[in-house]
Amino acid sequence: MPPRPPSWILRARNRQLMIEVAISPVHAGDADLKVCLTNSGPHECLNVIFVIRLPAGVMRLRGQERIGPIWLPPGKTVCEQLRVRAERPGRYRLTSPNFSYQDHNGKPHREASFTAEIIVEPAPAPAPEPRISTELQTRELALGEWTVLRCRLSNVGGSDAEKLELALDGQVTVDERSRRFALDRLAAGATADASFYVRAQEAGPHVPLYFDLTYSGPRGRHPDRTLATVSVSGNPTPAPGFSPPTGELIKVLYLAANPVDPADPGRRGLRVEDEFRAIQQAVSQGRKRDDIRLESRWAVQSLDITQALSSVEPHVVHFAGHGDAKEESIVVGDEYGYIHTIPVDGLVQAFQAVGQSVRCVVVNACSTERLAQALAATGLSVIGMRQPVGDHSAVRFSIGFYQALADGRSVETAFGSGVAQLMMTPLGDDARAPFLLSGGQAARG
């Protein structure tokens, strides 16, 4: 609510009565007008009546225009409050066509010329409101392929926006788990990126997309619809997914990092050891357990990744640890054991240089969409997490994934098995977090 201007009080003394008039209307707006009758004399007054007549330009919205008849003992105050609307700032005169009472001796009194000045100040400047713009970041899509579509929300208004909800519509199919984007708050001047997993339904240079946004400001809920266009190329070339070769040894490289965050040194560590044990158990119970060999590296630093890729020559690489929500990449340790975010381009280069054997990458770390998309662009099958996910859910997903992989199932089937584990033991919306990309194509879980 905008701040109310101060009240102006006028006291008109009439023998044994004091009349107080307080009003704070604003230009072309609503305000409260308060009329108080106070007996400031030494004796009681009977049958007190006060009828309010508002001046032209001040309209009554609600409330009684008449006070009384009432009994008013010495020192007693009685008030009536009206809701009024003033047309414009200025000075107005309030009058009373009937202001009368009887004194303690029963003698009647009438005030025939009562007036009081009402001062109407200009309306205060309205509270600033948020204003959110939606800008499409993705310019091109391939027809029929699942991929990430990004947009940016910018608060160009004068106050924070709250409870933002964004939905995508148009000539695309949207992955059910990313159909709506929600954000609790977007500060004035700040930006936030939203992403949707989509498959284009029609080709063309200007395929329409619609972003439906709602958000809250000081004066309520704001709706907004933005039209954007994206170029969709036809004749997609599907990228093959990865299926375990029958009868051949599959090498899985488990890379775990749980470094200390100097900004939060007391934070509880991740259950990366528990996750590895769960994977070992899941593999040991599979029909194709003898076809899978697990290799692990612990407290991983950047230099350990290229060394392990080169020496192990894995088919599957599994990252377990924290993700950096800003960079959307994985976090490892530096030489002192503190957190270090590996740039996406650097990790992609590592796989291109010494990861020729790799067919599938599992990034079991929060908010790693950009990394997954970049790795998938090199032709790999990649599993990432589109949002923060709980430690328990990360372990459950790995169990389901490696159960299926150890039975000789494809990566896509194993991915679905991992998602099923999250859906059978739901914790919040963690089941929405995993996604699978195969050379840029996204599979649903």
From TrEMBL:
This is CHAT domain-containing protein. Residues 271-422 form the CHAT domain. InterPro entries: CHAT_dom. It comes from Trebonia kvetii. It comes from the Bacteria.
